[in-house]
Amino acid sequence: MENVRIDKWLWAARFFKTRSLASDAVETGKVKLDGERVKPARAVRVGDKLAIDNGSDEWEVQVLGISDKRSGAPVARLLYQESEASIARRIAEHERRKLFHEPGADFKGRPTKRDRRQLGRFHDE
User: Fold this and answer.
1) Given a cut of 70, is residue 111 above it in pLDDT?
2) What is the DSSP string of 70-116?
3) Closest alpha carbon to 4 in 35, 30, 36, 26
4) Among 77, 79, 40, 78, residue whose Cα is nearest residue 63
5) Cα–Cα distance list, 29 to 13, 39, 106 (Å)
6) Structure-derived torsion over alpha carbons of residues 36, 39, 44, 50, reported in degrees to the nearest 10
7) pLDDT at residue 116, as a whole number
8) Which helix (DSSP H) or strand (DSSP E) does residue 53 occupy?
9) 121 to 2, 27, 38, 116: CA distances (angstroms)
10) What is the Cα Rg of the chain in Å?
């Protein structure tokens, strides 16, 4: 297997839970191939460098293997190699999130009456 669509590869490498999420991320520019936006049908080749923002983390990886089948995490990890700078940045971001909890991070969608009260108490302090 030589060529696989980038959205299939991202799904197989477990950066996104579904292929449609991977395709949407590629279309919106959250995945860049060698620093440029691409379409979801673009083929990935060994040696390509990808910048991936999956919402919670940002990755800079080099493609080491090609697959269009999703398998276990240890196998998927063999498809790419993350850069040292990317690893350091993700660890620093994880530590920052651990030390400073965003006040609105727990709220999903429109706040409930209870959530609004808690926000009010937070602003009054």
Assistant:
1) yes
2) ---HHHHGGGEEE-HHHHHHHHHHHHHHHHS--TTTT--SS--HHHH
3) 26
4) 79
5) 18, 9, 26
6) 40
7) 85
8) strand 49-53
9) 58, 41, 46, 9
10) 18
CATH code for the structural domain at 4-102 = 3.10.290.10
Q: Is 51 exposed, middle or buried (0-12, 13-18, 19+ CB in 10 A)?
A: middle
Which residue type occupies 39?
A: K
Q: Span 31-53, mean pLDDT? A: 93
* Residue 14 banded pLDDT, cuts 50, 70, 90: very high
Q: How is residue 115 written in tokens?
A: 């959530």
106: left (phi over 0), alpha (psi -120 to 50) or beta: alpha
**What's residue 2's pLDDT?**
74
Distance separating alpha carbons of residues 10 and 12, to the nearest angstrom: 6
Mean pLDDT, residues 33-49: 93
Question: In this structure, what token pair is assigned to residue 43?
Answer: 């083929």
